[in-house]
Specification:
By secondary structure, the chain is α/β, with parallel strands linked by helices. The chain has two domains: 12-84, Chemotaxis receptor methyltransferase CheR, N-terminal domain (Chemotaxis Receptor Methyltransferase Cher, domain 1, Orthogonal Bundle); 95-279, Vaccinia Virus protein VP39 (Rossmann fold, 3-Layer(aba) Sandwich), CATH 3.40.50.150. It has helices at 19-33, 42-56, 61-70, 75-84, 95-105, 125-137, 155-163, 168-171, 176-182, 198-201, 235-248, 285-292, and strands spanning 114-119, 146-152, 165-167, 183-188, 191-196, 204-208, 221-226, 249-257, 271-274, 277-279. It has a seven-stranded mixed beta sheet. A three-stranded antiparallel beta sheet has the order 3-5-4. The longest helix is centred in the N-terminal third of the chain and has 15 residues, at 19-33.
Length: 297
């Protein structure tokens, strides 16, 4: 690999990325992670990858692309996808979904195993929020077989999620009672730390997963949360993904997407329930005829 000397004095923030270089990088990201970095994202890509160039002591994007091509381990490809992935989240984000989980989904849980998947869980706030709702609503949860699978493509986010430690800013919007029940607060110097309680952590299995690759789990899931992830995919990738989610849900299971997302213009079999909430329900005979273009008598 062609790495430069440690003493280089490159002004990284003055670097430019050409359209050709951008297309090469965005093509790799699409191939690996399905993320559609379309035209107009050049400045975002440049800003986020500058830290990789500085870390590797490479003076321009052409050298970086060569480094990617020469890296047979694939480690830098993974690091690149990591820094280009948006990881904005917070506890009880888009709380209407958690209200729906509480009011419509949990009351219909059977006594058998219950599985929920948080796909694209980022730094863990989403699966921990789901777990808190489950603990609040299911009195005998300690003796129930209820598990949450939380996955993300980012190694960095997975490490943070597994630790379950958040600063005061991250938990400030939580109701004081929930914070007291489900977090252990301490101080590292003057900095407050809030660690998710062991009983909550024990319910969640964190695993790195690229949604574009094979999925090792089999399901079925009662609910899948994949919120604010599909906005980074093009339409064909979105359709493939929601189809794969369909096969992982039990009959009657629920798919939650972000409020900035919709299945309206995608080919799918889900029943729309409310904004960003869909259910896996077999279509009626009339619906099947309508989709097939057969007129009723």
């Amino acid at each position: 690999m062609d790495s430069e000397l440690a003493g280089n004095t490159t002004d990284y923030y003055s670097l430019e990325i050409s359209l050709k270089q951008f297309e090469k990088i965005s093509g790799l990201v699409y191939q690996i992670a399905g993320i559609d970095l379309h035209e107009g994202k050049e400045e975002l890509v440049k800003a986020r990858l500058i830290k990789r160039l500085r870390h590797l002591k490479l003076s321009n994007f052409e050298r970086y692309i060569k480094y990617l091509n020469d890296d047979k381990s694939g480690e830098e490809l993974r690091a690149m996808v990591d820094v280009l992935t948006t990881n904005k989240t917070n506890f009880f984000r888009e709380s209407e979904h958690l209200d729906f989980l509480r009011d419509k989904v949990i009351p219909n849980f059977g006594r058998g195993p219950i599985r929920i998947w948080s796909a694209g869980c980022s730094s863990g706030e989403e699966p921990y929020s789901i777990a808190i709702v489950l603990f609040e609503e299911i009195p005998d949860i300690a003796i129930r077989d209820i598990r949450i699978l939380a996955t993300d493509i980012s190694d960095r986010m997975m490490e943070k999620a597994r630790k379950g430690i958040y600063d005061g800013e991250a938990v400030k919007t939580l109701p004081p009672l929930l914070k007291q029940k489900y977090f252990e607060s301490s101080y590292a110097g003057s900095r407050q730390q809030n660690k998710v309680s062991p009983m909550i952590q024990s319910m969640i299995s964190f695993a790195k997963l690229n949604l574009m690759e094979e999925w090792p789990m089999r399901g079925p899931f009662e609910a899948i949360f994949c919120r604010n992830v599909m906005i980074y995919f093009d339409k064909p990738t979105q359709e493939r993904l929601v189809g794969r989610f369909w096969s992982m849900l039990r009959e009657g299971g629920y798919l939650f997407v972000g409020h900035s997302e919709s299945l309206t213009f995608l080919k799918h079999e889900y029943r729309y329930l409310q904004p960003a909430v869909y259910q896996k329900v077999k279509p009626s005979e009339a619906d099947q005829k309508k989709r097939a273009g057969i007129k009723g008598k």
